[in-house]
TrEMBL record:
Transmembrane segments annotated in the record for this chain: 32-52, 328-346
Record keywords: Membrane, Transmembrane, Transmembrane helix
Protein name per Swiss-Prot or TrEMBL: Lipopolysaccharide biosynthesis protein
Keyword NAD: no
Any one GO molecular-function label of the UniProt entry: protein tyrosine kinase activity
Gene Ontology CC terms: plasma membrane
Superkingdom field: Bacteria
Organism: Mucilaginibacter ginsenosidivorax
Organismal lineage: Bacteria, Pseudomonadati, Bacteroidota, Sphingobacteriia, Sphingobacteriales
Family matches, as PANTHER family: FERRIC ENTEROBACTIN TRANSPORT PROTEIN FEPE, TYROSINE-PROTEIN KINASE
Cross-referenced InterPro entries: Bact_polysacc_biosynth/exp (IPR050445)
Length: 358
């Protein structure tokens, strides 16, 4: 008995679904002109969009970043180097570990430096910021609004006036939000991908190249700055001690020349040369240790220097994001049908709830 009731209930539920579906189809069929009109309107709007939409070119550069932590031979000599006041790093400092390298690419410092870098556009040298201003027609807007269409960005950025700094800041923000994308092509790999999108193909290519070049140079210089400073300090110490050692050797020779046939019985005549010899021995020992630490510091500098190798630079012609007219019409038409159906169903539901209309 229970199985029979359950069967009848299921049959009623299926019939209700079928009836509701039929009513829905009937409702949509009765409003077919409204739905078709929306499809045509959206299709036409999409066609206009595809006609006026400018192609977007993407400059992509991928490079490998390998940053080895220090250890092994360097750590064995760290104690020896500390005797001379030299701090040899023993591991990864984490300055640009994780996602920090991406933040460096998006920093104002790097983007501004790239914008103020000169590039070659079809044989003509021009600042990247001037190229950006040109294809975005910003000078026309400035002329109509602020009367500053003749503003230039040559010279030292530190001497820019308030208006120049404001414009650069605005352009940096725009590039960060709309033009630049930095990511790892694979989270398991050390391959970093830099994408720059714009409606100017040459700008996308040159800005990508210059940005990668500037950031990588800054990265290497910063990672090796401490070791390089230690290396310069040791080199100056070695040069200074070498001068002292040379003077001491010359002093020994001068002291001997002062008494070439000294009476062996007169020991006081040998004192000056012996003092100079002690200076030579001391300077030799100090110079030997400094040279040893200098070589260790050179090894540390070479090993701490990260390997950055560009894999795929942007090459013309760049990939282009182009929306075809037929594709735009089809997408717009389908979207219009979907919107119209939603409107019809919402209005039907509203009438049922408010007016209890069935």
């Amino acid at each position: 008995m229970q199985e029979k009731d359950k069967t009848e209930t299921d049959s009623i539920a299926v019939k209700e679904v079928v009836m509701k579906l039929k009513r829905l189809i009937k409702l949509l069929a009765s409003r077919w002109t409204f739905i078709l009109l929306w499809g045509c309107i959206m299709g036409g709007a999409s066609l206009c969009y595809s006609i006026f939409k400018k192609d977007v070119y993407t400059g992509t550069c991928t490079f490998v970043l390998e940053d080895k932590s220090q250890g092994g031979l360097i750590s064995q000599y760290a104690g020896l180097a500390s005797l001379a006041g030299i701090d040899l790093p023993g591991g990864s400092d984490g300055i640009f570990s994780g996602e920090n390298i991406f933040a460096l690419y998006r920093s104002r410092l790097m983007i501004e430096k790239t914008l103020l870098t000169e590039a070659d556009f079809n044989g003509k040298k021009s600042l990247l910021i001037d190229r950006f201003i040109k294809f975005n027609k910003l000078r026309t807007r400035w002329k109509n609004k602020d009367k500053i269409d003749s503003i230039a960005f040559t010279g030292d950025p530190q001497k820019f006036n308030r208006k120049q700094d404001s414009i650069v800041t605005d352009i940096v923000d725009i590039i960060n939000k709309k033009y630049l994308d930095v990511k790892k092509s694979d989270k398991k790999l050390s391959i970093i991908e830099v994408d720059v999108k714009s409606i100017d193909e040459l700008f996308s290519k040159e800005f990508t190249n210059k940005l990668v070049e500037n950031v990588n140079q800054f990265y290497v210089a910063t990672k090796t700055k401490k070791t390089f400073q230690n290396l310069q300090t040791l080199q100056r110490q070695a040069d200074s001690v070498r001068i002292v050692l040379n003077n001491a050797i010359s002093g020994v020779a001068s002291a001997i020349d002062a008494a070439p046939n000294a009476n062996p019985a007169l020991l006081s005549l040998r004192v000056p040369s012996q003092k100079k010899q002690i200076d030579v021995q001391a300077s030799t020992a100090i110079y030997s240790e400094i040279v040893k630490n200098l070589e260790i510091s050179k090894i540390s500098f070479r090993q701490e220097k990260p390997l950055i190798q560009v894999v795929d630079p942007p090459v013309l012609p760049l990939p282009v994001d182009h929306l075809g007219k037929i594709k735009a019409v089809v997408i717009g038409f389908i979207l219009g049908l979907f919107i119209a159906i939603i409107i019809v169903l919402v209005k039907r539901t509203y009438r049922i709830i408010i007016f209890n209309f069935n």
